[in-house]
Structures are given as C-alpha cells and as structure tokens.
C-alpha cells in the first residue's frame, strides 16, 4: 500500500468511528433517559401524586413501592408519616366530638339532674309502702330514672375524663378484686371471674375503678352466667396492663371499630357510654383501652403508665 492509500484508509476509519459515535450517542442518551425515567421518574411521580392526595386531605393515601433503594425507603417513611397523620387527625376529631358532647351534656345535666333527684326522692319514699302491681311499676320507674341519672352522669364524666385528685400509686390487683365485687353486687347472675397477676400504676384510683368496672361488667354480660371472665394484671418498667377477657360470643369484625363510639350499643338497655368513657379516662392518664385479638370471646386491655403521664405532665 502506498503512503497516500494508508492515509486515506485511516481517514476513512476515523470518519466511520466519528459517524458511529454521532449516531450512537443519541441512542445511548435515549437508553439512559428511559432507564432514569423508569427507575426514578416513575417512583417520583408516585411520591408526587401521594403528596398531592395527602395535601387534598386523603390521609389514607399509601405509596406502594417495594425495594431497598433510597426511593423505596423514602416511600416507607412517607407511608409512616401518612399513618401518623391519620391517627393524629382521628384523635383530634374524637376529642373535638367529646368536647362538644361535653358542652351539651353540661347543659342537659344541669336541667335534668334536679327534677331527676326529686323523682328519685319521691320514689324511694313511697316504693317500700306500696305492694302488688303498683309496687312493681314503681320499682320499674325507679330503675329507669336511675338509668337516666347514670347516662347524664356518664356524659358529664366523658366531657371531663381528667382526674381532679393528685396522682397516687394504684394497686391494680386490689382494685380489680374490688371491681369484681362491685360488678357482682349489681349483677346477681354474674359468671365466675378470676383475677391473676399484680401491678401498679400512677393515677387516680377512682378513675381507674370506673375503667375496670366498665370492662369487667361488659365481659360479665357477654360471658353470661355459665361463662367465665379473666382479669390478668401485669406490668413492665413503664406500663401496667390489665387484660379483661371473657368467653362470650366475641365482637363481629364489622363492629370492632365502632365499640368505642359514644352511644354505640347492641344492648336493649345499654347506654353505649361505657367503653367511650373507659378510653377517655385511660387516655387522660397517658394510657389507653384497646380491643385486642382473641381466639374466642373478647379481650380488652387497659394500658396505664406507671410514671407521670397524660394530664399531670
Ligand atoms: N366483652 C364484650 N363482648 C362482646 N361485646 C362487647 C363487649 N364489650 C363491649 N361490647 C360491645 O360494645 C358495645 C358498647 O359497649 P359499652 O360502651 O360498654 O356500652 P353498653 O355496655 O352500654 O352497650 C356493647 O353494646 C357491645 O356490643
Ligand atoms: Mg358497658
């Protein structure tokens, strides 16, 4: 090959290489663009849509991104934030509902309590003296008047669940035993109730008594005379728990979310205020009342802080 042919050959190759580059580069850039838009653009769009939905008020929004990369970790954090916001909003709505219920209750209680006391006073004066059918009717009237008084009282307490006395150590085992006796006193047909374990909390004994009374009474009513109720007290360093379980029919899945709503009841003579009040009191102490999963029957748990929490901090 002559020298000029060699130069021409090199020149042609260089030209081919340059052409290859010029055509390949956009393709390469396109491939990178597609990769980036799949790997980053898609998840970013999902995150953006999620943020927009949350911004529009839909706090149930969750982002479905599985994986170990940074964007999936960001999505998991986003979901945790959305769940926390949702819980926070539920609490706010609940406390706002309770506060407005309380304002109504205070007015109603004021107007109703005085005539109710007069009715109850006259009834107790005359009931012992009247026999036969009239006596039975008076007993029935008294029972219903007492029920009205209890409803008004429970509504008032629901609006003011915080204790008014200084915090004291509360022996939850002893309190549970007292509560079981109190439930037996108002329920002659109460089932067998066993108390086990030990633990103490810091709070108001009178308020915790109300919580446990409502839980044990519900459990005894559900279990029926032939059933059984177990009250188990336990505690770790920071929290005491009282678990009340029964052998009753359990709570249907579609009602589980509603049992803490004020006035939700499935009983013909229920007020539907017991669990709402129990939860409001426990939360005012920095604890809670929760419905737990039970294989059969029902299990409620009172969580009570062992140190100062809730209203005292
Ligand atoms: N241990 C239980 N077993 C089955 N259902 C229960 C139990 N405890 C509560 N419930 C359900 O929750 C509802 C609300 O309870 P509560 O607030 O105490 O009101 P009430 O006892 O007046 O109905 C009850 O009517 C019942 O349907
Ligand atoms: Mg009840």
Kindly summarize this structure in a few lines.
The protein is of the alpha+beta class and 313 residues long. It has helices at residues 3-55, 70-127, 132-159, 172-186, 205-223, 274-284, and strands spanning 168-171, 192-197, 200-203, 228-235, 239-246, 288-292, 298-305.
Please tell me about this protein's structure:
By secondary structure, the chain is α+β, with helices and mostly antiparallel strands. It has three domains: 3-86, no CATH class; 87-159, Helix Hairpins (Orthogonal Bundle), CATH 1.10.287; 168-305, Heat Shock Protein 90 (2-Layer Sandwich). Helix content is 59%, strand content 14%. It is built from six helices and seven strands; from the N terminus they run αααβαββαββαββ. The chain has helices at residues 3-55, 70-127, 132-159, 172-186, 205-223, 274-284; strands at residues 168-171, 192-197, 200-203, 228-235, 239-246, 288-292, 298-305. The strands form two sheets. Strands 2-4-5-7-6 form a five-stranded mixed sheet. It has a two-stranded antiparallel ribbon with strand order 1-3. α2 (70-127) packs antiparallel against α3, α3 (132-159) packs parallel to α6 and α5 (205-223) packs antiparallel against α6 (274-284). The N and C termini lie far apart (97 Å). Magnesium ion (MG) binds next to α5. The site of adenosine-5'-diphosphate has 20 residues, from α5 and α6.
């Amino acid at each position: 090959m002559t020298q000029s042919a060699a130069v021409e050959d090199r020149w042609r190759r260089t030209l081919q290489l340059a052409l290859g580059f010029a055509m390949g580069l956009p393709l390469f850039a396109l491939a990178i663009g597609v990769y980036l838009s799949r790997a980053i653009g898609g998840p970013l769009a999902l995150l953006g849509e999620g943020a927009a939905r949350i911004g529009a008020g839909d706090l149930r929004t969750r982002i479905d991104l599985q994986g170990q990369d940074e964007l999936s970790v960001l999505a998991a954090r986003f979901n945790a934030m959305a769940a926390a916001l949702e819980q926070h909003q539920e609490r706010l709505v609940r406390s706002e509902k309770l506060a407005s219920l309380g304002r109504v209750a205070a007015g109603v209680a004021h107007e109703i309590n005085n005539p109710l006391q007069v009715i109850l006073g006259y009834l107790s004066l005359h009931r012992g003296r009247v026999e036969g059918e009239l006596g039975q009717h008076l007993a029935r009237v008294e029972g219903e008047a007492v029920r009205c008084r209890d409803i008004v009282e429970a509504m008032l307490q629901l609006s003011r669940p915080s204790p008014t006395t200084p915090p004291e150590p509360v022996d939850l085992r002893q309190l549970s035993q007292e509560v079981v006796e109190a439930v037996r006193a108002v329920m002659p047909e109460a089932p067998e109730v066993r108390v086990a374990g030990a633990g103490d909390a810091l709070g108001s004994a009178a308020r915790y008594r109300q919580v446990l009374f409502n839980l044990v009474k519900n459990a005894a009513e559900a279990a029926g005379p032939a059933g059984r109720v177990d009250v188990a007290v336990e505690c770790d360093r920071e929290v005491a728990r009282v678990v009340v379980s029964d052998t009753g029919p359990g709570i249907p899945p579609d009602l589980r979310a509603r049992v803490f709503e004020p006035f939700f009841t499935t009983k013909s003579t229920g007020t539907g205020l017991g669990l709402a009040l129990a939860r409001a009191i426990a939360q005012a102490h920095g604890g809670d009342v929760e419905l737990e999963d039970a294989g059969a029957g029902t299990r409620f748990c009172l969580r009570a802080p062992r140190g100062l929490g809730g209203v005292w901090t």
